[in-house]
């Protein structure tokens, strides 16, 4: 081994995601199992700069696998974007004797990690923790499955009232310019259509879809809209429908941060546990600047540069599945 690996730091950064705690637990316990000390860094890169760091033992991660959110707290740090901020972060890393980092988060987290690792020659491994599922090189991210289940639970309830009142609902889901949550929740909840940033849908096309639905057998319609300036969001679309097609009784629900909370599903707990173990294995194996991913149910290593590329494609065949099933 070219470098000492006797103490690692763990942090969570960016938007929280259900399953982050399972990942913290797995990473901590695997490190300790391998004789590596663990330092918990609170509030992401912000806490690394402000020195909010504490020793972790196995008992610090007891009874957390089932909890949503992150026990390490999370933050978005503007200071870490500056060389001065990263210098202080590095000094704190040294002060605590950490010689590697495991960072859990999304593209912002890995962008910061990539620069930090390069500047100070630090081994850093990332775990994909975001409900958006927008990281390249992995089939899924920690938190995505739980968020999908939360969405379909909410949509099922909205369907009850939508059909009682014979209304058209636009339901906005999260995703930060990515349509994975919207498209898959639309299929899983039997929605009539989805509007996602990856595919342009004109209001006229949408109207045709909805008309078809109402004309044939349905007395309600649900359209899942991905939040994004490109889609115009649920409010924007609903406004246009109201003006251009006043015959519909339109309502809007924005699901918001409810999608980020809750106890992780079994699937998220399992992938978070597997990925946490894989992160420590990768560090022992002298890997650095990689994200742990899952492809075809196998652990893979994805360079940060690839993971944060802005082009994770949606599965086009799923759009066809939704169209066929919503006739
Ligand atoms: O990246 C996760 C996410 O929940 C996005 O889907 C959403 O756009 C964003 O975070 C919301 O961020 P905040 O909690 O800072 O409002």
- Spell the H/E element sequence: EHEHEHEHEHEHEHEHEHEEHH
Poorly predicted runs of 5 or more residues? none
Mean of all residue-level pLDDT scores: 94
- In CATH, the topology of the largest domain is named Rossmann fold
CATH architecture of the largest domain, by name, is 3-Layer(aba) Sandwich
Portion of residues in beta strands equals: 15-25%
- List ligands, each type once: 6-O-phosphono-beta-D-fructofuranose
* Protein structure class: alpha/beta
Share in helix: 40-55%
Rg result: 22 Å
Order of strands in the sheet with the most strands?
Answer: 3-2-1-4-5-10-11
Largest β-sheet summary: 7 strands, mixed
Number of strands: 11
Query: Helix tally?
Result: 11
Structural notes for this entry:
This protein is α/β, with parallel strands linked by helices. It folds into 2 domains: 7-143 and 264-309, Rossmann fold (3-Layer(aba) Sandwich); 144-261, Phosphofructokinase domain (Rossmann fold), CATH 3.40.50.460. 42% of the residues lie in helices and 18% in strands. The chain has 11 helices and 11 strands. The strands form 2 sheets. It has a 7-stranded mixed sheet, with helices on both faces. Strands 7-8-6-9 form a 4-stranded parallel sheet, sandwiched between helices. Strand 10 and strand 11 form a beta hairpin. Helix 1 (20-33) packs parallel to helix 9 (266-284), helix 5 packs across helix 6 (180-189) and helix 6 (180-189) packs parallel to helix 11 (316-325). The protein is elongated and about 70 Å long. It binds 6-O-phosphono-beta-D-fructofuranose (F6P).
């Amino acid at each position: 081994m070219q470098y000492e690996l006797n103490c690692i730091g763990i942090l969570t950064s960016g938007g929280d995601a259900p399953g982050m705690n399972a990942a913290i637990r797995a990473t901590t316990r695997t490190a300790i199992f391998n004789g590596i000390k663990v330092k918990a860094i609170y509030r992401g890169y912000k806490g690394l700069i402000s020195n909010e760091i504490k020793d972790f033992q196995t008992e610090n991660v007891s009874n957390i696998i089932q909890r949503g959110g992150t026990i390490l707290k999370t933050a978005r740090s503007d200071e870490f974007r500056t060389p001065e901020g990263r210098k202080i972060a590095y000094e704190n890393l040294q002060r605590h004797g950490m010689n590697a980092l495991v960072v859990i988060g999304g593209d912002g987290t890995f962008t910061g990690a990539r620069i930090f690792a390069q500047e100070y020659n630090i081994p850093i491994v990332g775990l994909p923790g975001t409900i958006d599922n927008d990281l390249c090189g992995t089939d899924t991210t920690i938190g995505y499955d739980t968020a999908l289940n939360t969405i379909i639970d909410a949509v099922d309830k909205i369907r009850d009232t939508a059909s009682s009142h014979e209304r058209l609902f636009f339901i906005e889901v999260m995703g930060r310019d990515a349509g994975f949550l919207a498209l898959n929740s639309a299929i899983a909840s039997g929605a009539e259509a989805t509007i996602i940033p990856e595919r342009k849908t004109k209001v006229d096309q949408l109207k045709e879809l909805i008309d078809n639905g109402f004309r044939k057998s349905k007395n309600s319609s649900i359209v899942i809209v991905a939040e994004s300036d490109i889609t115009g969001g649920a409010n924007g679309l609903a406004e246009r429908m109201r003006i251009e097609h006043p015959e519909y009784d339109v309502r809007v629900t924005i699901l918001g941060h409810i999608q980020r909370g809750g106890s992780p599903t079994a699937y998220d707990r399992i992938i978070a546990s597997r990925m946490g173990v894989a992160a420590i294995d990768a560090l022992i194996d002298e890997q650095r600047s990689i994200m742990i991913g899952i492809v075809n149910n196998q652990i893979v290593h994805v360079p940060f540069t690839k993971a944060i590329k802005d082009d994770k494609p949606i599965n086009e065949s799923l759009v066809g599945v939704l169209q066929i099933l919503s006739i």
